[in-house]
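Reminder to self: keep the SMILES exactly as supplied, no canonicalising. Ligand is magnesium ion.
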Amino acid sequence: MSNQNVKLKISNMKKVYKNGDGVDNINIDVFEGEFLTMLGPSGCGKSTILRTLGGFLDIDGGDIEIDGQSVKDLPPEQRPTAMVFQSYNLWPHMTVFDNLAFGLKIRKVPKDVIKEEITKALKLVCMEGFDRKYPGQLSGGQQQRVAIARALLLKPSVLLLDEPFSALDAKIRSQMREELKKIQEDLNITVVFVTHDQTEAMALSHRIVVMNKGKVEQIGTPTEIYDTPATKYVASFIGEMNFFENGDGTTTAVRPEDIVVEKDGEGGDIEGHIRTIMILGHYVEVNIQVGDNVVKTYLSRSVADILKIKDKVSLSFHKKCVYSA
Ligand SMILES: Nc1ncnc2c1ncn2[C@@H]1O[C@H](COP(=O)(O)OP(=O)(O)O)[C@@H](O)[C@H]1O
Ligand SMILES: [Mg+2]
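Structure tokens returned for the bound complex:
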């Protein structure tokens, strides 16, 4: 991120559908050059927010400003935004070139400039030479690359992406992620990205907005969200977490990698017996029976090597979060 200028400001925004679903009290500042991700389970309101930003949904309260100007009453084509959807939304009867040229022709961009810009955009998304193909001749990943190129050609102030990679298989998805991250950094473009996939959010974002049932639970960097989840909900949604009820209404949360396991040890936080040992490559998942609970730990190979099923161990919490009721 290059600076702390607010590019997009969402204040007290409210959008409620007739059936009562929707989002309320949304306050988010997105900085220039920032990659911001809205993360949450299906139905929490991510697409609703993104559509209000793009102008595809009117809002019921609050405001949306881009570069200090309210855009809430502008139709999509008059907003300095461009949107990429999960379904690529390319016109099947048009070549890649014509799909890309469409928006520029409407803006009366000269023909030679259009050609030049399209060549550059296709290069950016690693699709050089595909201009004469039809969408039906391309894979899902290639179609989404074209859809991203089409959005970038509009030179939006803010690029909006709604689960753009969720229809792609895992390998292509992670490759596209990496490419999008590179494009975002090279162009220093402001991005609002939507996903329900926490790994994707962690990998791509400068900051993450964790959402739950139409409300914002926490806004923070991936490290802040992972290391100090603000609520029990965030703690359970992001990464793996062990929860311990303390009996006084409070809950202690500990990550599997923050537990130190000692064979025959004493004086730890709790004691238990080894239940399973699973070698997952460079680390080992060791599950420990503690009373009625199973506690998950991630240990290094050298530590796990000396442990056996049924061994008595003590567990010390290297780091923990405590949540009140
Ligand atoms: N057009 C609509 N009419 C009524 N309810 C809707 C409409 N679109 C979405 N919803 C509801 O609003 C909530 C948020 O939906 P959405 O923003 O699509 O969530 P997400 O993108 O996080 O999955 C859900 O409960 C959904 O069922
Ligand atoms: Mg959605």
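Points to follow up:
The two ends are 37 Å apart (CA to CA).
The chain has nine helices and 18 strands.
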